[in-house]
Every structure is written in C-alpha cells, then in structure tokens.
Design brief:
The structure holds two protein chains of two kinds.
Chain A: H1 6-18, H2 30-37, H3 63-89, H4 94-97
Helix pairs in contact in A: 1-3
Chain B: H1 10-36, H2 38-47, H3 54-87, E1 90-92, E2 96-98, H4 103-110, H5 112-130, H6 138-161, H7 166-195, H8 201-232, H9 245-248
Antiparallel strand pairs in B: 1-2
Helix pairs in contact in B: 1-5, 1-6, 2-3, 3-4, 3-5, 4-5, 4-6, 4-7, 4-8, 5-6, 6-7, 7-8
The chains are: A mainly alpha, B mainly alpha.
C-alpha cells in the first residue's frame, strides 16, 4: 500500500464532484421538505453572500460547467485543508522519537 | 440535512458552537496522541534487530513520517470523496431528495475522531464557500453530522459488531450503523429546531425521522458500496486494523 494509492480516491472524488454532481436531484432534501410542509422554510436567512452560492460558480456561461467547476473547487478545498491538517497532526518531531519519550 | 441560519435560535446555535469547538479540539489531540503511541511499538519492533546506533532513531523517525504521510492522505482523500458524494442528491419518495452524510463511512475508513475532523472540514467548506448550511448554525451542523453522525455512528457500529465477524458481519454492521445514524441525526436536528421555538416538537420530530428512514437506507447502501470497494482493493480501513485497539483502551 503506497501512500499515493489514495490519489485514486481523490480522482474518483473529482469525477463525482465534477461530473456526477450534474445529475443530482434538485428536489428539496429531507430537512427542506419538512420545513416547507410545516411552513418554517421562510425563517431561513443568509447571513452573508457565499462565494459560490448553490454550487454554481457565478459568471460562467452554462450551468453544467458552472456546477462541475463548483464541485471540483469544493473537492480540492476539502482535500487541501485536510491534507494540511493531517500534516500538522501526523508530523514527527525529533522530540517525539527520542528515547524515553 | 444542513441547517441554515434562522431555523435555530441564537442561544441554541451559540451553545452548539461551543460543543462543536470542544469536540473538535478533543478530536485533534486524540488523533495526535494515538499517532504518537506508535513510537514505542516501532521501537520494540526495531529492537529485535541488531542495534543500529544513531541509525535507529532515524529509522523510527522515517517510518513514522511515512505512516504519517499515508494517514494524512487517507484523511484528505476520504474528506474529498464525502464532499463530492454529498453533492449528488438522489431522489427519494414523494418529491424529496437525500444525499450521503458520510459520518459512518469516514469513521470506519479513518477512525471516529478523524471522522469528526473530516466532517467538520466538509461542513466548514460548505458553509463558507457554498452557503450550504448557515455560518451561525455551523456548530449545530458539526454537532449533528459530526458528533452524532460520525462519533455516534461509530458507537452504533461497535454495538452491531458485537458477536459478529468476517467481511459480511463488518458490512452488515456498517449498513445498520449508517442507516440509524442518519435517522438519529435527523431527530437531533428536529430537537434543536423545536427547542428554538421554530416548530413544535410533536410535528417536526416525527416528520424529520420518517423522511430520513429511506434516506438512511441509501446512506447504508452507499457506505457499504464504498467500503467493500476499498476493502477489495486492499486499502487500509481503520475499523479493520489493529490500530483501533488504542481507542478501545479508553
């Protein structure tokens, strides 16, 4: 098992986020549906303007491309953040391996 | 099941931000501590070889660094996969849709505390970049999908694994834990909405639980499909490795 075998999983993730995401159902999810049925959906408010609202990159012609781009950006953002966090948590300092530690 | 700002009250939201921050901090230190527990193990393994002098320390360090790199890649790859999978809403009965939450999947692949960090990272990116789930409600979402969904899902998995063995027992337990974790997460979200005074508990709780029963089945199906694909290809799965013994001691 080489470390870069996980690269395959990243590639699969990019395919899912960049391609399969376009076929996502646009029906409300469980929580939204309940909120709509019970009439509290309108209590939702946006506290700020998201960079890429609703997983569609603004200013891109073609919804398919805009969604794919959003999926790829998000997948890479999560990957990059967690790789950095992992490097931090799994770093090995000299003091960690010195005798008697 | 990302709660937007407004569904829950400020008091509820702030309380859950505190709980989420505490849990994430505990997770960070648990993961770091269990990683460093491998130092004496590696030293014992190396002790069976002739003494290498200066080289021995180097060898432990390089082996540990290599293990660390692989663990960091696993953490990041699992997060990327779950984020991407969460984008793909599948249709469910009567005009609703659902998507993978991935708490149990992350916990079984990377470990329960790692899974809490993975879910928090995903929810953070979704809230900040995509406006999916509120910023003030981020603590609630981490509480629901990270603490209840991933850590709670892990506890459910351990419960179902009792007296079971083999790949079949593993996958059956994973399915059951994934399914129930989604329904449990929806119940907790409903309670938060109810205590915020948004909707009475008598109506929101049964509705949330019922609509998430079929969504939970899909969670189980996707969780088992991904797990069996990874196991078949020889990926190191935390739930199947001896390293989990360091969590069992607690």
């Amino acid at each position: 098992m080489k470390k870069n075998d996980w690269l395959i999983v990243l590639v699969v993730a990019l395919c899912v986020g960049g391609f399969l995401s376009f076929f996502a159902s646009s029906s409300p999810d469980g929580l939204e549906w309940v909120a709509e049925e019970q009439g509290f959906l309108d209590t939702a408010r946006a506290s700020f303007d998201a960079l890429i609202p609703d997983y569609v990159v603004p200013g891109i012609a073609g919804e398919r491309l805009a969604t794919s781009l959003a999926g790829i950006v998000g997948t890479l953002a999560v990957f990059g953040f967690l790789l950095g966090l992992g490097r931090l948590m799994y770093q090995v300092n000299d003091s960690d391996v010195s005798s008697g530690s | 099941m990302h709660i937007p700002d407004g569904f829950i009250g400020d008091g509820t939201a702030v309380g859950l931000i505190g709980a989420a921050m505490a849990a994430v901090s505990v997770a960070f230190h648990k993961v770091r501590a269990s990683f460093l527990e491998k130092v004496p193990v590696l030293r014992m393994k190396l002790a069976t070889f002739p003494p290498l002098g200066e080289g021995e320390e180097m060898s432990i360090q390089s082996r540990l660094s290599d293990l660390g790199r692989r663990k960091a890649w696993r953490l990041a790859a699992v997060g990327a996969l779950i984020f991407a999978a969460q984008m793909v809403n599948f249709p469910v009965a009567h005009g609703t849709s659902g998507h993978l939450l991935g708490g149990v999947l992350a916990a079984l692949i990377a470990g329960p505390w790692e899974a809490l960090l993975v879910m928090s990272a995903i929810l953070g990116v979704q809230a900040v970049i995509f406006g999916d789930g509120g910023i003030v409600a981020l603590g609630a979402n981490v509480f629901n999908m990270g603490i209840v969904g991933a850590l709670g899902g892990w506890v459910l998995f351990r419960f179902f694994m009792r007296g079971r063995a083999g790949r079949r027992g593993f996958l059956e337990s994973a399915f059951a834990a994934a399914w129930i974790s989604v329904v449990l997460t929806s119940v907790v979200a409903a309670v938060e909405i109810a205590i915020s005074g948004t909707e009475p508990i008598g109506s929101v709780l049964p509705a949330m639980a019922l609509v998430h029963v079929p969504i939970g089945i899909m969670e189980g199906v996707i969780t088992v499909a991904v797990l069996s694909a990874l196991v078949r290809r020889g990926f190191p799965i935390a739930a199947l490795s001896k390293e989990m013994s360091s969590y069992e001691k607690e």
